[in-house]
Each structure stands twice: as C-alpha cells, then as structure tokens.
What we know:
The protein is an alpha/beta fold. It contains 7 helices and 15 strands. The chain is about 30% helix and about 30% strand. The protein is elongated and about 65 Å long. The model has no long low-confidence stretch (mean pLDDT about 85).
Amino acid sequence: MKPTRPTALIADDEPLLRSALARLLTETWPELDIVALARNGREALEQFKELKPSVCFLDIHMPGISGIDVARQIGRGAHLVFVTAYSEYAVEAFAQGALDYLVKPVDQARLVETVMRVRERLGAAQEAPDIDVLLDKLEARLQRKTAPEPLRWIKASIGQSVRLIPVEDIDFLRSDEKYTQIAWRDDDGKVAEALIRTSLRELLVQLDGTHFVQIHRSVVVNMNKVCHVTRGENETATVSMKGRTEKLPVSRSYLHHFKQM
C-alpha cells in the first residue's frame, strides 16, 4: 500500500507571507501536500476540522483568534510550527523544543532545519506533544514584550461631566455596535454603566492581561470580579459576576481561561 503523504495547513493574515511560505515549503519538502491556506484563526480552525492536516504552520499574531488560541484547540491533533516576527521572543520561548518556530521573513536554512525535525516526528509516528502549559508560558511572555503600560483610568462622558473610572473598579466591558459598554462600581459600590467610543479591541491591548481577559468576541471581564462559571452545550459557558445579574457568554475559543475553575 502506498504511504500517505503528509499534509499541511498554513495560517497567516498577510497574503504575501502566506504565499511565500507555501512556495518555500514546496521547494524544501516536495512530498508535503499543502491542503489549506487560511487568512485568519477562524478559517484555520474550520479548515483543520475539515481536512485534518498533519502539520500546521500558524502565525502567532492573527486578528480575532490568535495562532496560540488556534493551537489550543488543535491540541495534539497535529504537529505545530509557529511563525512569528519576534526573533528574540521566539528563541527564548521555544527553548524547550516541544514546538518549533519560524521567524518572519522566513529563512530557507532555518526552514530546512524545521522541516527535518517535523519529518522525523512524522516518520517515527510520534504523537504531537501536550502543549497547554507551554502555550500559557508563551502567551505570558508575549504579553510582557508587547503590552504597553496598563491603563489605570478610563474616561467616560456621563451627562455633562467626564468621569474617570478606575480600571480596578470595572467588572466587565462589552462591545455595543459602535460603542463599548463599561460596567463598574461607583464609590458607594453600586453598579454603574457608561458608553465610550473606544473599541473593545483598542482597550484590550491597554488593559492588564493578568486581570482582564476576553471571553467572547464582544466581552472582556475582570477575573477578580468573576463569581462563577456555568458550563453550557457545545463547549460554551456563561460567566456570572459578583453582585450583578448579567450572564456573560463564553465562546469555545476562550473557554480555556476557566479550565482550572
């Protein structure tokens, strides 16, 4: 019986880099069938579920669902190679060798080394490693390297005045069409809300990632204010906040934040 050829998925939101990596892989690894080219994390997950490639090349920084979030959902389903623009970060973060990486723009010599390692794993029928702990460390390192000084206050217009809302008082943030809803506690501990024009995406990169996490494409919560999490169907959940009646949705892509709860 003819041996099955290895297959690959490439996910990168930059078309030129996506095409360049596909071309280099074709030259370096002729036996590899590139079965999918994804423009973002969501496409990567859809194509992975449909095609089940044996190797996935994932750009770490993609809009919506990052390469790290994609990797969490793929788990041991494929051998993973991350693609990153942060060379020093990559060298440090991947030192354990459980995962491989390529630095943009991709160097062919480095690609040859990576291909050799992945081919050895496939040839030896090695199971892809359990990477959850490593991904947590990578995500933390990346946040430390790229995040600006966290916000301490958010300005919101309430009536005729401008309110300075301390970030630590915020329970959650939720996108609302062109606005972002800020839900917080006032000086008396009473629940309060305000709308600001800054997008949720812009705010998220300025908030302290050790306390504020995204749980849905439209919701970010302060983990210090979470009361409990209720599991739902199809790998979803809802979050209840201390002293509030809202049930905030948790989508499958972000359920890993509550694995230990």
